[in-house]
C-alpha cells in the first residue's frame, strides 16, 4: 500500500544568522525525492558542529542542498525516487545528508544510506553517519592509519573525538587524546582512549613525548588548527601525517617547512559537506564493507550525550556550544 504523505511538515529553519534563538520551528513543504534519492521519515537527527557554524552564518549550505540544518538522520524510507532499487519503503536506515536533517522528512541519496539493524536504536543510528564518514575518510583514507600505529586526537570527548577513539581501537591503533578537564580525561579513557591529556593542566607536546618515549605519534587528527599546528608537528614521529578537519582555533598557521621536509611529514585535511555525491557514495561503500559489519555485530556504538525534542533544537545548540557534552547530541523528531 502506498504511503500517503502530508503536504507540509515541521522543520527547524534559520531565519537569520545568529545565536541558538534563531533556530525556530516552521511549516514547510515536504520535499520529493529525485532520481537516485529517497525520502526518509526522520525519527532522530544528529547535531554537529557544522550545524552551529551554519547557524552563525559561517558555513553556508551548498547551492544544491537544503538550506535547513542537519547533516545526519535515522528513520524509515517513506518514498523512493526514480531508479532506486536498493531500498524498500519502510526500511530502517541512517544517512549522511547535505542538509535538511532537522525536519520530519529529509531527502537522502540512496547510496549514502546504511541499513539499521534491529539491535541498533534509531537514536544511536542517527549519531553515526557524520562522525563515521569524517573519521574513516580522514584517519584511514587520508591519514593512512594502520594497525599498530599511534594517533593523537584533539577534542577527545567531542562527537568526532569519541568516534576517533572507537574506530581507532577497533582497528588496532594506540589512541592518545586531549581533553579540557580531569573528568573528561577519565571519561575518554572509559570510552577506550589509551592515554588522555588534560591540555589545561599539562603541555600536550611534552606529554606525547613522555608517553611515546620520545618517538612521537604517527598521525594527528586536528580540529583546532591555528597555533596548534606547529605544536602538533612537534608531536609527530618521522614520516608522520597531520590531518586537519576543522579550524576552531583559527585558519592560519606559521610553520617551519624545513622541519616538514627533514622529517618527511605529510600535511593534509578535508571538509565533507561540499564533496560530490560520487565521492560520498564511494565512501559509503567502503564504510559498508569495512565498518558496518562491526555495527551489525554490536561492536561499534556511538557515545551518546543528550536527546532533545526537535522543537528544542536551540537548547541542543546551547549544550554543544557550552562544551560540556561528551559524545553525540541528537534531536528526536
UniProtKB/TrEMBL annotation:
Q: Which SMART domains match?
A: PKS_ER (SM00829)
**Which is an annotated Pfam family here?**
ADH_zinc_N
Looking at the record's lineage, which domain of life comes first? Bacteria
Q: Which CDD domains match?
A: p53_inducible_oxidoreductase
Q: Could you tell me which InterPro entries the record lists for this protein?
A: ADH-like_C, ADH-like_N, ER, GroES-like_sf, NAD(P)-bd_dom_sf, Quinone_OxRdtase_PIG3
Query: Which keywords accompany this UniProt record?
Result: NADP, Oxidoreductase
Citing just one GO molecular function, the answer is: oxidoreductase activity, acting on NAD(P)H
The chain positions of domain Enoyl reductase (ER) read 18-331
Q: Which NCBIfam families match?
A: quinone_pig3
Protein name (Swiss-Prot/TrEMBL) = Putative PIG3 family NAD(P)H quinone oxidoreductase
* Protein source organism: Novosphingobium chloroacetimidivorans
Amino acid at each position: 500500500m502506498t504511503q500517503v504523505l502530508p503536504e507540509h511538515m515541521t522543520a527547524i529553519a534559520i531565519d537569520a544568522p545568529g545565536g541558538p534563538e534563531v533556530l525556530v520551528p516552521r511549516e514547510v513543504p515536504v520535499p520529493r525525492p529525485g532520481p537516485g534519492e529517497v525520502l526518509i521519515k526522520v525519527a532522530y537527527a544528529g547535531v554537529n558542529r557544522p550545524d552551529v557554524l551554519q547557524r552563525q552564518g559561517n558555513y553556508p549550505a551548498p547551492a544544491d542542498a537544503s538550506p535547513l540544518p542537519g547533516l545526519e538522520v535515522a528513520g524509515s524510507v517513506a518514498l523512493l525516487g526514480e531508479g532506486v532499487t536498493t531500498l524498500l519503503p519502510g526500511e530502517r536506515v541512517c544517512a549522511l545528508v547535505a542538509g535538511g536533517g532537522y525536519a520530519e522528512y529529509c531527502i537522502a541519496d540512496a547510496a549514502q544510506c546504511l541499513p539499521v539493524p534491529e539491535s541498533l536504536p534509531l537514536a544511536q543510528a542517527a549519531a553515526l553517519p557524520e562522525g563515521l564518514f569524517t573519521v574513516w575518510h580522514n584517519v584511514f583514507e587520508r591519514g593512512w592509519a594502520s594497525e599498530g600505529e599511534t594517533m593523537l586526537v584533539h577534542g577527545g570527548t567531542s562527537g568526532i573525538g569519541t568516534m576517533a577513539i572507537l574506530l581507532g581501537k577497533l582497528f588496532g591503533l594506540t589512541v592518545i587524546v586531549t581533553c579540557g578537564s580531569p573528568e573528561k580525561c577519565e571519561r575518554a579513557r572509559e570510552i577506550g582512549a589509551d592515554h588522555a591529556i588534560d591540555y589545561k593542566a599539562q603541555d600536550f607536546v611534552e606529554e606525547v613525548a613522555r608517553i611515546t618515549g620520545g618517538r612521537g605519534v604517527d598521525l594527528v587528527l586536528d580540529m583546532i588548527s591555528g597555533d596548534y599546528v606547529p605544536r602538533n608537528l612537534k608531536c609527530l614521529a618521522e614520516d608522520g601525517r597531520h590531518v586537519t578537519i576543522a579550524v576552531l582555533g583559527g585558519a592560519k598557521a606559521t610553520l617551519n617547512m624545513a622541519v616538514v621536509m627533514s622529517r618527511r611529514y605529510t600535511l593534509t585535511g578535508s571538509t565533507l559537506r561540499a564533496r560530490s555525491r560520487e565521492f560520498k557514495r564511494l565512501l559509503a561503500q567502503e564504510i559498508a564493507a569495512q565498518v558496518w559489519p562491526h555495527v551489525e555485530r554490536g561492536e561499534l556504538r556511538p557515545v551518546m550525550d543528550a536527546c532533545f525534542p526537535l522543537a528544542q533544537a536551540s537548547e541542543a545548540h546551547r549544550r554543544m556550544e557550552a562544551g560540556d557534552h561528551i559524545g553525540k547530541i541528537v534531536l528526536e523528531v
